[in-house]
């Protein structure tokens, strides 16, 4: 008999060992199933008799809505589509406005603003001289 992998051959070989011990499933719903290895029994128990862990779900908080979602993104999409929820974009910065000589340029970063102001100062010193 040929095997694709070394592990497949080892698994097959273990089945034919002289090892007579069997591992029984103790669950009432299994009509006395027997396994030749503890690993096989454990795999069976996990697959057949263990409930998967429940993930926390996110419930829609709108009145009368009972839907639940796996991710925050799915919940928000639902609320926008079916409940008319408005998405507000938060500004993460306070804009910095240059008011030198009526410039009115807006900057996101103080360093950029400072560099810009320095440019104004250089223009003033070169034009005054």
TrEMBL record:
One Gene Ontology term of the molecular function aspect: zinc ion binding
Transcription among keywords: yes
InterPro entries for the chain: Zinc_finger_trans_reg, Znf_C2H2_sf, Znf_C2H2_type
Biological process, per Gene Ontology: regulation of transcription by RNA polymerase II
Keyword Transferase: no
GO CC, any one term: nucleus
SMART domains linked to this entry: ZnF_C2H2
Cell location: Nucleus
Domain of life: Eukaryota
Keywords assigned by UniProt, alphabetized: Metal-binding, Nucleus, Transcription, Transcription regulation, Zinc, Zinc-finger
Lineage, opening ranks: Eukaryota, Fungi, Fungi incertae sedis, Mucoromycota, Mucoromycotina
Organism in which the protein naturally occurs: Syncephalastrum racemosum (Filamentous fungus)
Entry-linked PROSITE patterns: ZINC_FINGER_C2H2_1
Transmembrane segments: none
Domain C2H2-type: 60-83, 98-120
Name by which UniProt lists this protein: C2H2-type domain-containing protein
């Amino acid at each position: 008999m040929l095997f694709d992998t070394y592990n497949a051959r080892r698994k097959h070989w273990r089945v034919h060992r002289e090892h007579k011990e069997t591992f029984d499933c103790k669950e009432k719903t299994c009509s006395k199933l027997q396994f030749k290895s503890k690993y096989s029994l454990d795999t069976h128990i996990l697959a057949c008799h263990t409930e998967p862990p429940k993930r926390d779900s996110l419930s829609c908080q709108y009145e009368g809505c009972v839907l639940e979602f796996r991710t925050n993104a799915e919940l928000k999409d639902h609320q926008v589509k079916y409940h008319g929820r408005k998405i507000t974009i938060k500004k993460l910065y306070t804009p910095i406005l240059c008011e030198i000589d009526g410039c009115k340029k807006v900057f996101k970063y103080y360093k950029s603003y400072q560099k810009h102001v320095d440019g104004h100062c250089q223009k003033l010193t070169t034009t005054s001289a």
